[in-house]
Amino acid sequence: MVEVLGKEEHGGMKAEKREVRGARWLAAVPEDEYVLKGNSACAGCTAMIALRYALKASRATGRKTLLLVGACCMVVCEGVYPNTAYNVPTLDTAFACTASMASGVEAALKSFGRRDVNVIAFAGDGGTVDIGIQALSGAVERGHNFLYVCYDNEAYCNTGMQRSGATPLCARTTTTPSGKREKKKDVPRIIAAHDIPYVATVCPSYPMDLYEKFKKALSIEGPKYIHVLTPCPVSWRFPTSKGIEMGKLAVRTGMWTLYEVEHGVFRLSAPSRRVVLNGDVLPVEKYLRAQGRFNGITDEEVERIQKIVYQELERLKEATARRRLW
Amino acid sequence: MREMQEEVVFVTGNEAVARAVKLAKPNVIAAYPITPQTEIVEVLARYVESGELRSEYIHVESEHSAMAACIGAASMGARVFTATAAHGFLYMCEMIFWASIARLPIVMANVNRALAPGWNIWAELKDAMAHRDAGWIQFYTASIQEAYDTTLMAFRVAEDRRVMLPTMVNLEGFVLSHVMQPLRLVDEAAYDEFLPPVRIPHALNFERPHTLGTLISPEHNFLVQYDNNKCMRAADDVIAETEREFEKITGRRYRAVMKYRCEDAETLVIAMGTLAREAEVACDSLRDKGEKIGVLRLRQLRPFPKAFAEEVKRLPAERFIIIDRAYSSGYGGILAEEVKARLYDLGIIKEVKSIIAGLGGQDVPHEALEKLFMDKQGGETWYGV
Amino acid sequence: MVWSVSAKEAASESDAVRAGTRRVIEIRLHSRGGQGGVTAAKMLAVAAFLEGKYSTASSFYGAERRGAPTVSFTRISDHEIRKYSQIRRPDCVIVMDPTVIDAVDVTEGLKPGGKLLINTENNIDADKFEDYEVYTVNATKISLDFDLKVAGAPVLNVPIVGAVAKMGIVRLDAVRGAILKMFPNEKNVAAAEVAYKMAAML
Asked: Which of B73, B102, B250, C82 could be stapled to B28 by a disulfide with Cβ–Cβ 3.0 to 4.6 Å?
């Protein structure tokens, strides 16, 4: 972790200062692993980094963890009966209803008078943005005390990369061979519009930011939503070792923005402040051409995406000024 | 004049079910409204809001989520309840199957209603009968008292360690859900003794973390199903035992198979739900005219009761008339086909007449049933066609 | 209306059912949606229940549009009632809204000599209903006199059940008990008692 930060090339902070901070931070993260070795994740899976640190953050709150896992890569990563790689009590859920099964879990704990459990639901983008959105919307509208995490590899990657509502424009998937024609559905904004206490976007490439946001979320009562961009080497088609780099490119190009909406107040996170406010943004082409899922993308399409990114950055600038996401 | 004491009230079938649920004190109720069940969740909401019933009440946003929430809560060891009908049942279908495989003792009231398109909100049994393979214990009730009593027994049956399976109590839309009849209540203290505290052995806990529902390979999956079936069959005896215990505290006698004038009957009418009761009225009329006819009402479709075979073997009837309020297109009346299969198992190849009546809430008067029973022609007859 | 069609089909004389020990009194109420016909049926059933009988009350549930003709049913017996089908051969018919008579054959299936109660302010043409024992009561007026209104419309069911007591189907004290149980209000009881006094056989 410290090494990667040491390789910082761009912007604002001195490398050595960051290194020190990184080490101190790392020392504070619980050492216990809740995602055990021998799990079935793909080599280079960034989603597992998110899960690992989410569970560590949960541990750091001093409360117990009840994990729900939707029908997604995370379930496959768990392993096969009679083994499981997750060292916390886990309920695997059906596809459409991770959030409603979580609602039931939360209600049961409430009825038992237990206030010492972090209920954390993990689901993929398909299970959140598409088939799961009804249950998610209902659960947060009802105000259940739980954290919902959408890990977003921008397709139904578990089943071979079919397009989801979270797939970005022009991405090639098995069901959009010539590129998706629609924009990415902005679910964090939709959930923020439910006026819940905490919404955040994160990426495992920024582990400190991710960990702190998980910890913060778990310290808040009520429904919380965290959306994680998890670059998938297999589906996005880039080298196994480049997962962290890809996440950084996503943030640096403005294709993914790190922010929080805490009790309605919008706030960009440090890595995205540079991009949005200081104009320190890399051309999207760097990001798109680095991934096989954009193979065949035309210059016009790249331009179109670039324009959309600039528009989004403008919108985020305004949002920052107003301190409101919409 | 009879005083309206607390022990006997005059309520609808829906309210009767809600009163039973109140006695059972579930930890969690998942509620989504659908005609003709809505009053159940409305009455429960009143109980919860007034403090009479201390349950967590989740206003789920769909029936699929209702069953999902029940599964979530039961996975933590909670006693749960939900209610649905027709399209709600169908919408939650994925999770209906899930609940059984997950071995969770969820209790659900299903108010039987016909399926669309062509919105028809009246009584038909297809919603539940078409899912007799889902691995739920299924009861079909024929009076408000029975709906109440069966709901009370359902919690105990479902949570029995030898069973640990979800259980549904069916009551027909409008003819039972909305009709008002006198209801004898069960004393709360007596019921508290009858229903032990819920204990779900495989519920998630924090002392020894484990996972529910992980991947399972072809080497293991069939063993889970084998186990499930073993317990479903064991449920037959557990249900009988529960019914006998219930009789001790209430004086009301329920069996898997309820007989009416069958001992010397030459013709047996086999039916479920309110049509079986209407058939009893027809039966009385025919008896007055000298016909030796009786009615065998099935209270329990799953597990298919052993008692059915025992009774049929023992009784002298040579002719069987089966009334169906649900039809399997291209095949036959669902109950008729189940019964015929059982009769075959018993080596009984008898004359079987299948009557299809009451679909989509079609009104079936006892006079019409009389005529149908007396029509000696066998095969399949659709009332009204 | 389903019942009016199949009543003709199945109206064979089944006297064996009528005779014998299992006698069921069947009452059909005609009203318009929003007038409280279902409630009247329930009130009658509760009254019979308070007398120690077994009773059931139900309605034909269709699209319950305000103002549409609607039917409700009450059955009363000394024994558990096992009939769930609609009432085709009522012993008593109650017409809560006289304008329904133009839309629907209210006496369909009514046994000869059966009782008929009509809420009306005019005199009824007795010839039309000569086969039956006809009672009339001006339930609307009684309701308005007692200022019994819901959503601006007069509450008819309370005076109607008072009138039914006059017909000997349920006792007046049972009617009082039912009203106090369902809508405890002295005005309601008074209205029912006035209707009982005013109801008269033609």
From this structure: B73
Backbone angles phi, psi at B300, to 5 degrees: -135, 120
Helix axes C37-50, C172-182, angle to 10 degrees: 120
Q: Is B43 helix (H, G, I), strand (E, B) or coil?
A: helix
Distance (Å) of CA A25 to CA A30, A49, A244, A272? 10, 16, 18, 20
Question: Which architecture, in CATH terms, is A32-322?
Answer: 3-Layer(aba) Sandwich (3.40)
Terminal-to-terminal C-alpha distance of chain A: 34
Q: Domain of B130?
A: 8-183+218-250
Shortest CA distance to A224 belongs to which of A166, A140, A142? A140
Q: Which CATH architecture fits C24-201?
A: 3-Layer(aba) Sandwich (3.40)
Q: Are A19 and A2 in contact (CB under 8 A)?
A: yes
Place of tokens 């049509």: B275
- What's the predicted TM-score (pTM) here? 0.88
Co-location of B305 and B242 in the same domain? no
Domain for residue B211, yes or no? no
Question: Which ranges of chain B would DSSP assign to H, the alpha helix?
Answer: 13-24, 38-50, 63-75, 86-91, 93-101, 126-129, 144-159, 188-194, 218-250, 274-288, 306-314, 334-345, 366-374
Question: Per-residue confidence of chain C (202 residues) as pLDDT tens digits?
Answer: 122 222 222 223 333 333 434 689 999 999 988 788 989 999 999 999 999 999 999 987 665 567 788 899 999 999 889 999 999 999 999 999 999 998 889 999 999 999 999 999 887 777 888 899 999 999 999 999 999 887 778 889 999 999 999 999 999 999 999 999 999 999 999 999 999 999 998 8
Nearest CA in chain C to B122: C61
How many domains does chain B contain in total? 2
Q: Do B1 and C174 touch (CB under 8 A)?
A: yes
Is B10 at the interface with chain C, CB within 8 A? yes
φ/ψ of residue C115, rounded to 5:
-95, 145
Q: Are B125 and B170 in the same domain?
A: yes
> Are B232 and B297 found together in one domain?
no
Classify the complex by whether its ipTM is higher than 0.90, answering yes or no: no
Residue B281 is assigned to a structural domain of this protein: yes
Asked, as a colleague might, if the bond just before A188 is cis with ω within 30 of 0, I would say no
> Which residues of chain B lie closer than 8 angstroms to C59, CB-CB?
178
Q: How far is Cα A220 from Cα B298, in angstroms, rounded to an integer?
A: 53
Contacts of B113 (CB under 8 A, 6+ apart): B35, B36, B85, B86, B120, B121, B122, B123, B124, B127, B173
Contact exists between B and C (3 or more beta carbon pairs < 8 Å):
yes
Place of tokens 């009546």: B357
Residues B235, B345: one domain?
no
Helix (H, G, I), strand (E, B) or coil at A145: coil
Kindly report, residue by residue over A245-265, the tens digit of the pLDDT. Answer: 999 999 999 999 999 999 999
In a domain, B358, yes or no: yes
In Å, how far is B63's CA from the nearest CA of chain C?
A: 24
Q: Check B285 against C17: CB less than 8 A apart.
A: yes
Beta bridge partners of A226: A149, A200
Q: Can you read off the two tokens belonging to residue A295?
A: 């193979």
